[in-house]
Automatic annotation (TrEMBL), chain A:
InterPro entries: MetI-like, MetI-like_sf. This is Multiple sugar transport system permease protein. Keywords: Cell membrane, Membrane, Sugar transport, Transmembrane, Transmembrane helix, Transport. It is a multi-pass membrane protein.
Automatic annotation (TrEMBL), chain B:
InterPro entries: ABC_transporter_permease, MetI-like, MetI-like_sf. It comes from the Bacteria. GO terms for cellular component: plasma membrane. Belongs to the binding-protein-dependent transport system permease family. This is Multiple sugar transport system permease protein. The chain crosses the membrane at residues 25-45, 89-110, 122-142, 180-204, 225-245, 282-302. It is found in: Cell membrane.
Length: 283, 308
């Protein structure tokens, strides 16, 4: 903690004691924030006999829980399901939300404003209200218990469309005009010229959509009934109920569900934080 | 070459005679075609259907038939609904101010910290990336009695009596709320940081030249200029707390919403009415009530924040 005072590049005289106190409190708060994650990970590395030993660093760390849980096959299956669902929905949103956002931002045609307002108005409708009609629709078309059943409600979002529209509006028309004079068709202009100019927004949209679908629980819980089609959160929930008090197993399952997003964050921290700021400010 | 040119002349006759503006219109509607079908079928139609289902007696075995406002009458006469209504607002009334206060204080100081800035920010942000359903189990484990639960273990070490947490009707709701607040802080901190950074430095410099104290600068410059950020976060997090479900469902899976319905929010009631009792029409009425609550809360907050 005293490291703040000795940090290189800052003259000692400019560091006020108040700053050091503030830094220390922030640091302690940050450690408290990740404590649940540390305990989850550490318990997943303990065997049943060590679970009641609440040390953060396990005395005899073991990967047995992971080997047992992944070996039983269900978690691997749920993991794959979650990846498939989250990736496809993310690709769909990046494609369609930006296509619609671009059209509403850059084309002049009658009805544009009405389309925009209509899409925007769906933001006011909570998912929970649509869940029963979706369930009815899915059961009528035989979509219950299928990947498509899990995915169809989220293939496009008004939030993503609105976000992309905001960003495409800042793309200069001259660029697009120049491409038009060169004889490119409108689809190529969007895909090859406009899209590369909004990559920060695209990555923000991709991050939010992926995270939202990776952690989604309510709709997958409703639409899936057979264990083969559970996503990780739903699978974990049913697994944990069945384990009842084997906390080291439950913590291993929770780690498997949580680690992928944490690891992605470690590599993409800069983009993710920027993406959240962009989405929050423009959205 | 000539074959292609020929075909273009034949089929493209109409196309090539169009003005650039007319072509643009066709392209635009072409781009919008699939999305418009999606929004019509997956968003608008289900919205109307939800209102319609709420005035029917649809169950899993019985097709829907019109019953008027019967479901709403039944709901408003149901003591469980009022209990759930109270719980849902408790999540909102406790969750929103507490989480915004903590995240503002953290962001305010973190904004001035340079040393290990992005590391500390990452510590606060990580919980936002977790799966609520998984974290509910971690917290559930924390709340267990000794020797299993971490929190009671710490309390025992400090000589403080054991707390029942999830087993008590008065402590369970805050105990369920804690992981929801915890997981949301990182997002709010990042948004506050972005808002703080958008305030021009010259404002602060001018205030310092005028001899304003730090507290006065906070009150007269920082908070007023953060208002758009604050409005966004208040509305966003309020909607989140009013729709709480994943944590509640998982933290007490043998009796979701328990003990004695003391933690049950509206979305859980909807889920149980629809998929445990299979009273779909009644559940649809509850979703319409949820919609109304969200709408009123958002409008009231936007109004209040704008006037001030």
């Amino acid at each position: 903690m005293s490291a703040a005072a000795t940090s290189p590049g800052l003259p000692m005289s400019r560091i006020k004691p108040g700053r050091i106190v503030a830094w220390t409190f922030l640091f302690i708060g940050g450690v408290i924030m990740v404590t649940p994650l540390l305990f989850m990970l550490s318990t997943s590395l303990k065997d049943a006999s060590q679970v009641y030993d609440l040390r953060v660093i396990p005395q005899a760390p073991t990967l047995d829980n992971y080997i047992e849980i992944l070996g039983d096959g269900r978690f691997t299956r749920w993991f794959v399901n979650s990846v498939i669902v989250a990736v496809i929905v993310t690709i769909s949103n990046v494609f369609f939300d930006s296509l619609v956002g671009y059209t509403l931002a850059k084309f002049r045609f009658r009805g544009r404003y009405i389309v925009f307002i209509a899409i925007l108005s769906t933001l006011m409708i909570p998912t929970e209200m649509l869940v029963l009609p979706w369930y009815l629709m899915a059961s009528q078309f035989g979509w219950l218990d299928s990947y498509w059943g899990i995915m169809f409600p989220g293939m496009m979002t008004a939030f993503g469309t609105f976000l992309m529209k905001q960003f495409f509006e800042s793309v200069p028309d001259d660029f697009l005009e120049a491409a038009r004079i060169d004889g490119l068709n409108e689809f190529t202009i969007w895909w090859k010229i406009a899209m590369p100019l909004v990559t920060p927004a695209l990555s923000a949209l991709a991050i939010f959509t992926f995270l939202g679908n990776w952690t989604a629980f309510f709709w997958p819980l409703i639409v899936t009934t057979s264990a083969e089609l559970y996503t990780l959160p739903v699978g974990l929930s049913s697994f944990a109920v069945e384990q009842s008090i084997q906390w080291e197993k439950i913590m291993t399952g929770a780690s498997i569900a949580t680690l992928p997003t944490l690891i992605i964050f470690l590599f993409l921290q800069r983009y993710i934080v920027r993406g959240v700021m962009l989405a929050g400010l423009k959205g | 070459m000539s074959a292609v040119a020929h075909r273009e002349a034949a089929t493209g006759g109409l196309w090539s005679r169009m003005s650039l503006g007319q072509k643009q219109v066709i392209w635009a509607w072409g781009f919008l075609a699939v999305p418009l079908v999606f929004y019509a079928v997956i968003r608008f139609w289900p919205t109307f259907q939800a209102f319609y289902l709420s005035v029917t007696d649809w169950t899993i075995t019985r097709p829907a038939s019109y019953v008027g406002l019967e479901n709403y009458k039944r709901l408003f006469a149901d003591p469980l609904f009022w209990e759930v209504f109270r719980n849902t607002f408790m999540y909102l009334i406790l969750g929103t101010p507490i989480s915004l206060l903590i995240s503002f204080v953290v962001a305010y100081y973190l904004d001035r910290v340079r040393f290990m800035h992005s590391f500390i920010r990452a510590l606060y942000f990580l919980p936002f990336l977790t799966t609520a359903a998984a974290m509910a189990w971690v917290w559930r484990w924390f709340y267990q009695p000794v020797p299993i639960g971490v929190i009671n273990d710490i309390l025992a070490g400090l000589g403080i009596p054991q707390q029942p947490f999830l087993r008590s009707t008065s402590q369970a709701l805050p105990a369920v709320l804690a992981p929801a607040v915890w997981a949301g802080l990182g997002f709010q901190i990042i948004i506050f940081l972005a808002g703080l950074r958008a305030i021009p430095v010259t404002y602060y410099e001018a205030a310092r030249i005028d001899g304003l104290s730090e507290g006065a600068i906070l009150r007269k410059i920082t908070i007023p200029l953060l208002k758009p950020t604050l409005v966004f976060l208040v509305v966003f997090s309020s909607i989140g707390f009013l729709r709480i479900f994943d944590q509640v469902y998982n933290i007490n899976s043998n009796d979701p919403g328990g003990p004695l319905n003391s933690t049950k929010p509206l979305v859980l009631m909807i889920y149980q009415t629809a998929f445990s009792s299979y009273e779909m029409g009644y559940a649809a009425a509850q979703t319409v009530v949820l919609f109304m609550i969200l709408l009123v809360i958002s409008l009231v907050q936007l109004r209040l924040m704008r006037d001030r």
